Here is the input.
Amino acid sequence: MHEWCKNKNIESILDYLDDPDIEDDDMEALVREVDEHGRLPHHWLAGNAQYCTPALAGVFVTLVFLSPKALIIGDNAGETPLEIASRSRACAEIIGLLSLTFKEARSLSEEGMLRLYAPVAYWRDEMYIWIESRSYADCHKFINEHDDELVREVLKYSNSDLLRFVACNSQAYSDSLMFLALRMIHRHPLSLIATDKDGRKQHRLAGLFNACNEIVNVLRLTPNYISSTSFPTLLLHFLPIKHNEIYGTYNTACTFIKHMKYDKAELTEVEAVVEKPTRKCDVCKTATTKTCTRCKHTFYCSPSCQKSAWKKHKKTCKAPTTPPATEADLRTLHKGIALLNMCIQRPGAGDGPTSVVLEFLLPCPAY
Here is the structure.
């Protein structure tokens, strides 16, 4: 464990922490073991946390949960993990976690710390639970209610393993499961070409899990196809025709929401979609493959850079082919307002438009 933390071998740490054959007592004993320098794993990892990833944040939370006393223990040089992290200029997320007191760490619990300091890992774990229990409505609620950047990071986390998990749990077809798979690959098309440790492509794994033919066909799609196909077209192609009326209402709501969110241009990953040389962030000049979703012309490395440039960029940010507003557009807005008003008046309004217009999002019965 000390060598893994010293060398920032996060993958090996995760494999050990996720191993079901290791007893909790043995795991806690290893995490609390001090080396010849008087250091715990927390000390070594604190010195290697200059850049925070979802995996690193998740590992750090687990280490603190297993041994919260490590927060106040100094090594042979008298430095606590927080002091090492501060000296090493660790990222803000890790500094914040290590700034907790022993009492605060104990009261927060692992779940509370994950939610605060490793939200990507927390929501990935929640999605795992919902998919395994076929609670697809909870998955859709998470996608509806959270920031698009967080949703994409959750879908990308650990080599897009959530899509593999969907394939693993898709022996029996259901409309709700298919809708979830389509939403996931539409939000993150590159998950279709994610590979496992042996280098096998994502869609080939579906057959290994005996996934139903419908899901296998979806996983055989390419990122280029997904990126060039509208979401309503995907729905109509891969879901039964009986839901056409529902799709029409759903798409009306989505169109209205896009109008309402006009001042929030999103970022789109284009690494495997647009074969062009690496671009640079328009703000900090860092190499990036993320472009403004609307204009697809200006590149940014992160939402923070995009937000800082938005006041100037929004004056020139336009879709490549955006026709002027028509009477049909105004009718769409009117229908959207009516639909959202219905959502507010219905029980569970906080679930968003899909809770009203997509009937097949109800929890599936156990097989």
Q: What stands out?
A: The domain at 2-117 is CATH 1.25.40 (Serine Threonine Protein Phosphatase 5, Tetratricopeptide repeat). Residues 198 and 239 are 32 Å apart (CA to CA). The first helix runs from residue 2 to 6.
